[in-house]
Amino acid sequence: MTQLYAIYGASGCGRSLMPVARQQLARDNDPSEIVFIDDALTEITQINGHRAMNYAAFLNESADFKAVQIAIANSQVREKIAKRLEQDEIRLWSIQADNVVLMDQANIAEGAALSPFVTITSNIQIGKCFHANLYSYVEHDCVIGDFVTFAPGVKCNGNIHIEDHAYIGAGAMIKQGTPDQPLVIGRGAVVGMGAVVTKSVPAGVTVIGNPARIVESK
Questions:
Q1: What is the residue range of 33's domain?
Q2: Tens-place pLDDT, residues 105-144
Q3: Into how many domains does the chain fold?
Q4: Do both 103 and 176 map to the same domain?
Q5: Under 8 Å CB-to-CB from 124, ≥6 apart: which residues?
Q6: Same domain, yes or no, for 89 and 160?
């Protein structure tokens, strides 16, 4: 059976995840090709030693099985692409670096991208197309929704619930909740770079600073 894998997105995020994707296939003893998909391309070219093409060209590639890692930081775009892949019966592909640490009962849905030095501890539920960038961690008893993004160095402590499409900025720290009162980051909320979150964040707002506070719209 011929297999073809792809990184969807050839900008910084995609080019950073391609080495992780190669590690994934090496661990699986899978010699299959990995290509880039970039919708801005009009012809097949080369990027960092890999063939690169638009989505239509990828669909035309001959393979019995195709799977795609969506390396797009914008979570709304990730969801849109995921729906397109599902319609075309193409699998979401999860990748993780060789030095990622996964502990007990860490359940991660399809399409995740776990960059080098990420740690996921015990009794954790994570939704589809989760991005955890360099040196981020998720501590015990956390629940993370679909299409959530962690920038580098996020510290997500225990008993935290993060809803769909939330974005957690580089170096942000989220205070531990409790089993009966988890700290909640609401759907689509943005936690700014370096923020220290000490209480729940409502859906759709942006918080910054130490302690984190809501940025008022002007």
A1: 3-93
A2: 999 999 999 999 999 999 999 999 999 999 999 999 999 9
A3: 2
A4: yes
A5: 105, 106, 107, 108, 138, 140, 141, 142, 143, 144
A6: no
140 part of the active site = yes
Query: Same domain for 77 and 138?
Result: no
Which of 50, 131, 140, 161 is catalytic? The answer is 140
CATH code for position 12: 3.40.50.20
Tell whether pTM > 0.90.
yes
Check whether residue 37 and residue 114 sit in a common domain: no
pLDDT digit string, tens, across residues 136-180: 999 999 999 999 999 999 999 999 999 999 999 999 999 999 999
Q: Are both 102 and 54 inside the same structural domain?
A: no
217 falls within a domain: no
